[in-house]
Amino acid sequence: MIPTLPYDVWYHITSFLPRECLPLVNPSSLYRNLSQLPRLTKLSISHPLERFLSHESTGIDTSLKNNRHTLVELRFHSYHPVAYYPPPPDAFFSHPIFKVAFPLLEVLHLGLYRWSNNSEASVKDNLSRCLASFGNSGSLTKLAILEYVLRLEQLQAILLVVGGENSELRRLQVHLHGLDGNVFEALASQTLLLYELELCFNIMTEGKDDSFNEVMVNRRYPEWSLCHLTTVGPLCFGSIFWDTARGLLTASLPGVISFNGMSRGEFGRIPDYTKTWWATITLVLFSKKKHSFSRLQTPELLRRNDRPISSDITPFRF
Fold first, then answer.
1. What is the mean pLDDT of residues 193-216?
2. Shortest CA distance to 74 belongs to which of 1, 130, 32?
3. pTM of full prediction above 0.85
């Protein structure tokens, strides 16, 4: 009997156990029986990575092929509940399910894996091919790329597939590594009908030629249909630039109704914790009287906008 423990405790316990000691549920019978639902329109799958190789046939590809003419919404999430080295992107995306075409698909959520930076080119090419297969009918209205952190070049490649003049995309959720001045240019030019955008990002790319604040000073997108923007970040570095960036963002997007669920005025009046935070860091580094964090009363150092300073924060879901 599996003990009742918090997930994080159980995760660390099982990470020390060999795979053969852990029970694996074979979902083959479940997938085969999906054919008994000829009018299935929505399907959500959470699939373990260790069962996601070509020789680990579970029947999921056959089930999706049988239901591809009825599915309108597909949510696919890959996970690794135990310590397991995931397959490289080429092997992962070679699975037959990524070659199935869904002519009526409107909503697609893809929960991937955070591969290393060395796999960026492979992820870009494979993800583009996957999206071209899944949403080649042009019916896609909502797309979420989860878990994996995209680079700008990867986002641009994705938009070339799901965007363009004939795109029906209305909602988009992505997690970017860096927010620079070319992100909104790519989005506004390729997703003309986009209504809602959720953008999580790790850092602000300041001090470079494509820095967000320098570029956005002269950018305006009055014709873009975007109405609701949610930003989550910066999660790692660049918070000292975010106060200025918020003002530039509201000026560049005159058609947006709500920013993080607030009016543009409320969004611009968010208390700027970053100045206090930066001042605290400076005090710690250069003060001659204080020699330890424990002697400083620095609540802003431990929280910004009532959340921890961490790069491992799961973005919101819509």
1. 83
2. 130
3. no
